[in-house]
Write a structure and sequence with these properties.
Strand content: under 5%
Shape: elongated
Number of helices: 9
Largest sheet: none
Radius of gyration: 22 Å
Number of strands: 0
Distance between the termini: 76 Å
């Protein structure tokens, strides 16, 4: 049995259609960036070199926590879409918490320490009157979701 040009063309077309079908079927299952990842993907961050450096230094390591605490990443994204990170770095407790959380990525830390550090960061955002005013519609729901994820009551924050 020999293959003619027509058989070869049909086989190639069938293979290409199969590959295209696989690609189109897998596409809806691809994860979309959320939280910190979507914040880092935005083109607007590339406009200011200083902001980009700060974000890479402080925020990139925190992406690892988004699997266990997605609301934490979404709170950071929500706030930092409207306010620059350097604004909050002026607060000593916030900066220490962010550095501690960043460093904990590379060393083992007790989960309760991580949660406490995340709470310090979220608390800094919540206490800021401009953030509370500017992010009010979504912030409360995200904070409640974060508290559920870390299994705390709002009074403990």
């Amino acid at each position: 049995m020999s293959f003619s040009y027509l058989h070869l063309l049909l086989a190639l077309t069938g293979a290409l259609l199969f590959i295209l079908a696989q690609f189109l079927l897998r596409r809806p299952w691809q994860l979309k960036a959320t939280g910190i990842q979507s914040l880092l993907d935005q083109d607007s961050l590339a406009e200011q070199e200083l902001e980009l450096e700060l974000d890479q230094e402080y925020l990139v390591p925190l992406v690892i926590y988004e699997d266990n605490y997605p609301a934490f990443g979404n709170i950071i994204r929500l706030v930092l879409e409207s306010f620059p990170l350097r604004r909050f770095l002026e607060e000593k407790d916030f900066e220490e918490a962010l550095v501690s959380l960043r460093n904990s990525v590379f060393q083992s830390s007790h989960p309760q320490e991580l949660v406490s550090t995340m709470c310090e960061i979220v608390n800094t955002f919540v206490r800021d009157p401009d953030v509370e005013y500017g992010c009010r519609p979504h912030l409360e729901g995200l904070v409640n979701q974060f508290l559920e994820e870390v299994d705390m009551s709002p009074d403990e924050l």
